[in-house]
Write a structure and sequence with these properties.
This protein is of the alpha+beta class. It is built from 2 helices and 12 strands; from the N terminus they run αββββββββββββα. It is rod-shaped.
């Protein structure tokens, strides 16, 4: 009777490990499309668009988080920005899990994330910085849209579920061998 009770206890413990309620881990590359137009300065009406991608697996959802981009593509209607030299890393800014925009600067323009909301994100430029008299600057808005993935991310098995299933299988195999030897 004690042997039977031990087997039932082991089976119940193994099964419970397999059904522990843990949120599935998700690994996904998120892509945001963006577009906008300058609404002030010498280049008023100049448009820009593009997309940025990043891996969100390190996103905790707590406080300010800067995620390094895996891809950034920017197209400008005005060729003046084509040869700009980056002066910062391109990063996606999140605050408490909410996307606020792109943080990226070059020697002539910057993408500035929103402070509280992605709708506050802006684009700013400064031309002829070396000349105090002819300096030209301006700004515009940036609109972001989360691109729907072609293949939605799949759940990654949790270690506790995998361990539970492994233990259940090992127990079942051991029971099969015990019956054959008896």
């Amino acid at each position: 009777m004690t042997n039977f009770l031990q087997h039932i206890t082991l089976a119940a413990a193994t099964l419970s490990l397999g059904f522990v309620a843990i949120n599935s881990a998700q690994a996904a590359t998120l892509t945001y499309d963006f577009s906008g137009a300058t609404d002030s300065g010498l280049l008023i009406g100049a448009t820009y668009s593009g997309f940025l991608s990043f891996d969100d697996s390190n996103l905790t959802g707590n406080g300010s988080e800067f995620l390094t981009l895996t891809h950034l593509d920017i197209d400008f209607s005005n060729p003046i920005f084509a040869n700009a030299t980056p002066v910062s890393d391109a990063e996606a800014l999140f605050f408490n899990g909410t996307f606020l925009g792109l943080s990226f600067s070059t020697d002539s323009y910057s993408f500035i994330p929103g402070f509280f909301d992605v709708t506050q994100a802006t684009f700013a430029y400064e031309l002829n910085k070396e000349y105090e008299v002819n300096r030209q600057d301006g700004a515009g808005s940036v609109n972001y849209t989360l691109r729907q993935p072609d293949n939605p991310s799949s759940s990654i098995p949790e270690p506790s579920a995998t361990l539970g299933l492994f233990l259940l299988g090992a127990w079942g195999i051991s029971q099969m061998f015990k019956r054959q030897s008896a």
